Amino acid sequence: MVLSLLVKLIRSHNIFLKKLLEKVHHFIRGLASLLLIILI
After folding, report:
1. Measuring CA to CA, how many Å separate 10 from each of 19, 23, 36?
2. What does the alpha-carbon distance between residue 26 and residue 36 come to, in Å, rounded to a whole number?
3. 3-class SS at 36?
4. Buried b vs exposed e over 7-17: b needs ≥16 C-beta within 10 Å?
5. What per-residue confidence (pLDDT) applies to 31?
6. What is the pLDDT of residue 15?
7. In whole angstroms, how far apart are CA 37 and each of 15, 30, 33, 34, 40?
8. pLDDT for 40
9. Reduced to 3 states, what is the DSSP secondary structure of residue 1?
10. pLDDT tens across 1-20, in order?
11. C-alpha triplet 24, 26, 27: angle, nearest 5°
12. Domain encompassing residue 11
């Protein structure tokens, strides 16, 4: 019962986590390209 509740919680959070990861990934890529521009 606790496990199924945990799975439901993880599934609902999964969409949020994916969006957050996309934003973080986008930010890191932007930061990396900015650093490359500064260094070169």
Report:
1. 14, 19, 37
2. 15
3. helix
4. eeeeeeeeeee
5. 95
6. 87
7. 33, 11, 6, 5, 5
8. 79
9. coil
10. 788 988 888 888 888 889 99
11. 65
12. 1-40
Number of domains present in the structure of the chain: 1
pTM above 0.85, yes or no: no
pLDDT over threshold 80, residue 35: yes
Both structure tokens of 10: 């993880």
Give burial (CB, 10 Å; 0-12/13-18/19+) of 39. Answer: exposed
Give the separation between CA 30 and CA 7, rounded to whole angstroms. Answer: 34
Q: What is the DSSP string of 5-30?
A: HHHHHHHHHHHHHHHHHHHHHHHHHH
For residue 24 the two structure tokens come to: 């973080």
